[in-house]
Amino acid sequence: MCRNLFLALTALVLTGCTMHAGTTPQIKRSELEQGIGDSLQRQFGQRPAQVDCPDPIAAKVGESFRCVLVGTDKTRVGLSGVITEVNGTRFNYKIQVDDKPMS
C-alpha cells in the first residue's frame, strides 16, 4: 500500500464480531488486525501488507488501542483506535490514522 493511501485515511468506523470469554470480554489481536485489513480493502481497494495491534483489547466502550499499518513499500504508519460500541459478541471501533509515517 502506498504512503499516499495511508495519509488519505482519516477516521473510519469499523465493525468486528468475535470476542473470547474471560472475566472481561476480550477482542483477539488476530481478529482486530484482520478486521482493520478487511475494512481497508473494502473501502479503498487495497489492504496493508501487515497490521500489528496489541493483544488483547478489552471489549468495552472507550477502550483505546494503538496499531501499526505496514505498506507493501515498508512504510509504517501508526493508528489510534477506540471501541465505540459493544453489543453481545459484536463490537464497533473507530480508527484514526496518523498524519505522518513513522520514522
From TrEMBL:
Q: Name one Pfam family in it.
A: DUF4333
- The answer to keyword Signal applying to this record is yes
Signal peptide start-end: 1-21
Give every DUF4333 domain span. Answer: 13-74
Q: Which PROSITE patterns match?
A: PROKAR_LIPOPROTEIN (PS51257)
| Alphabetic keyword roster | Signal
Q: What is this protein called?
A: DUF4333 domain-containing protein
